[in-house]
Amino acid sequence: MRKVRRALAGLIIVAISATAASAEMPKALKGTWILDAQATEKYIKAQPDWDAEHAGILKEQLYQMREMMFEFTDDAFVASRLGLKEKERVSVTLKESNSKKFVFEAKMSGKAGALTVTFVTDTAITVEQSGDDSMRYYLWKRGSLPEKKAPSAKAPPQK
User: Fold this and answer.
1) What would the pLDDT profile of 23-59 be if each residue is shown by its tens digit?
2) Domain residues of the chain, as ranges?
3) CB 9 within 8 A of CB 134
4) What is the pTM of this model?
5) What are phi and psi of 128, to 5 degrees?
6) Please, how many CA atoms are within 13 Å of residue 56, restricted to the half-sphere of its CB?
7) Can you name the CATH fold of 2-142?
8) Which H or E element spans position 42?
9) CA end-to-end span of the chain, whole Å?
10) Distance, CA of 108 to CA of 115 (rounded, Å)
């Protein structure tokens, strides 16, 4: 849970602090990306460092991340959360790329840092920021979040 909060806080810091702009957004990334909870769960469980200790927190982490959405526009990375009107826009500069991996420069807390987007499959990406690997196993797919309804969302299953 702390890792999820730290990751979200880090992405928001990236969004608030970024200043460099570029119109170099690869076409492969343009559009909206949402958490693919089922694929993420399978992907995480297949990792060599997966163990039973992680199982207890996985459902809760996926529950919290389900409301996150990323959008890649012509010149920015935009992070938002279901139910919040504010979107955190990160202007980015493409520094390195190949067919599967894109490394962008952004300013985080006044320091230059990297935002790395990797295609794990043809339809799923991971999004990581430099110095923080807590998001490396979350898989994102193209899509959009539903409109937020009245607060009746179910809590994640208890351990």
Assistant:
1) 478 999 999 999 999 999 999 889 888 887 777 788 8
2) 2-142
3) no
4) 0.74
5) -130, 150
6) 3
7) Lipocalin (2.40.128)
8) helix 37-45
9) 14
10) 10
